[in-house]
Design goal:
By secondary structure, the protein is mainly alpha-helical. The protein is 76% helix and 1% strand. The protein contains 16 helices and two strands. It has a two-stranded antiparallel ribbon with strand order 1-2. A hairpin with a 5-residue loop joins strand 1 and strand 2. Helix 14 packs antiparallel against helix 15. The longest helix has 33 residues. The two termini are 29 Å apart.
């Protein structure tokens, strides 16, 4: 048996069911991202924006998320983890509709601001509950949860690939997807733990400086998430503009990337247990670097797609391991995890904008040269994640307050 911060008793079976529910929430969240990513070329054409302007617009999710993420802990503190997650997830699924409605750059920036704000808050809330369940089960599940996020991204991108191939208007596609995902998200939220803060507990602070250890670990996470964010949002554009691929094939590159991410993350916990965090990340860095080189040097679309797949395989488990290492890096795990979370989440949201800006000044090929260089950074920096290897404790460990925990995908 285990308890939350208000001494409510949860049975072991209830916690196991909560793990399934949180996994389903991760899947829904990922499906929204996958649905959006595959239709970025359509949205770009509809809004009549250049690559540089698209890069500018894609900076607005980062702005929205950065401003809104601190609110997630306060919302959970006030309403409880389950209610907060339910409300924030609904806002996120419905925000999927907004970018496709934008007719120009200004409205696209506004839509993506809301898209990013709802993404950040719901992401923090669901990861907070993931951390809670992991602590109560006393075994690693975060890589698997992130794997389910990638499964969701794969499902969303696969549906988007079909929609793009059929020439479906993204406004219709995203409206239908948002309605389905909202319903599924509400069902999934019913099974998560209903954790509540103590009545006299202070709400979480709006801002705290991360410890130095978190900055070092976060730098490795930054490299991985930059490569992930760049590939997820720009792979379809790369295939269409650089390789001259059809809209359907271009969207399929995002699906290939999401597929390798999903497979690697689902298998990640077992791989790390066998080989250790450092060797796993170092090998992943080699694969990601090879994938980046293949994207940059590929003479045809098929090889470029293989390159995106290797990139996804190589960076997949880095973020969960960065969070685990941060949690064991000092006397204040929550502060360290929050610091790493901020760095990695910001990286994922600024990557698309940075790629677009560099592409405007040079080309997309040069942009993915930068991605390749950052992927090689995983090989060089893997040693800082040594603390991510789990040490068996032999029993359950009470989790942190749901208002304080939280790590982004």
């Amino acid at each position: 048996m285990t308890t939350d911060s208000t001494n409510t008793v949860f049975g072991r079976e209830q916690v196991r069911r909560a793990r399934i529910a949180v996994a389903a929430v991760f899947t829904v969240h990922g499906a929204v991202t996958g649905s959006f990513a595959t239709r970025v070329p359509w949205i770009q054409d509809h809004a009549s924006v250049s690559a540089g302007q698209l890069g500018l617009a894609l900076a607005f999710p980062a702005i929205g998320a950065s401003l809104s993420m601190p609110l997630a802990g306060r919302i959970s503190h006030r309403f409880g983890a389950r209610t907060a997650l339910r409300g924030l997830l609904v806002l996120w699924t419905l925000a999927l509709v907004l970018p496709a409605l934008a007719p120009n750059l200004v409205t696209l920036c506004a839509a993506l601001f809301v898209y990013g704000a709802t993404a950040g808050m719901s992401d923090v809330a669901m990861n907070a509950l993931g951390v809670e369940v992991e602590n109560r089960l006393d075994k690693s599940i975060m890589s698997g949860l992130h794997g389910m996020w990638s499964v969701g991204a794969l499902i969303g991108s696969a549906a988007g690939t079909v929609a793009a191939h059929l020439g479906t208007d993204a406004r219709l596609h995203h409206t239908l997807a948002a309605l389905v995902l909202t319903a599924l998200g509400l069902i999934a939220c019913q099974g998560v733990l209903d954790l509540r803060s103590e009545a006299d507990e202070e709400p979480p602070p709006r801002f705290t400086l991360p410890p130095k250890s978190a900055l070092v670990i976060g730098a490795v996470g930054f490299c991985a998430v930059f490569a992930e964010g760049a590939s997820l949002d720009w792979s379809a554009v790369y295939l269409k503009d650089i390789m001259g691929s059809s809209a359907g094939l271009a969207a399929a590159s995002t699906t290939a990337f999401a597929l390798t991410m999903a497979v690697a993350r689902i298998a990640g916990d077992k791989v790390v247990d066998r080989f250790g965090a450092v060797r796993t990340v170092r090998a992943g860095g080699v694969l990601a670097t090879a994938g980046g080189l293949l994207v940059v040097l590929a003479p045809d679309a098929a090889l470029a797609m293989c390159g995106f797949g290797l990139l996804g395989l190589g960076v997949a488990v880095v973020v969960p391991l960065a969070f685990a290492a941060a949690g064991r890096s000092g006397p204040n795990p929550s502060q360290a995890i929050a610091g790493v979370a901020t760095i990695t989440y910001t990286s994922g949201l600024i990557a698309p904008s940075a790629i677009g800006s560099l592409a405007e000044a040079t080309s997309l090929v040069v942009s993915f040269g930068l991605v390749t260089a950052l992927a090689f950074g995983l090989v060089l920096g893997a040693g800082v994640l040594r603390g991510a290897d789990r040490t068996p404790t032999g029993g359950g460990v009470p989790g942190p307050s749901p208002a304080k925990a939280g790590t982004p995908t």
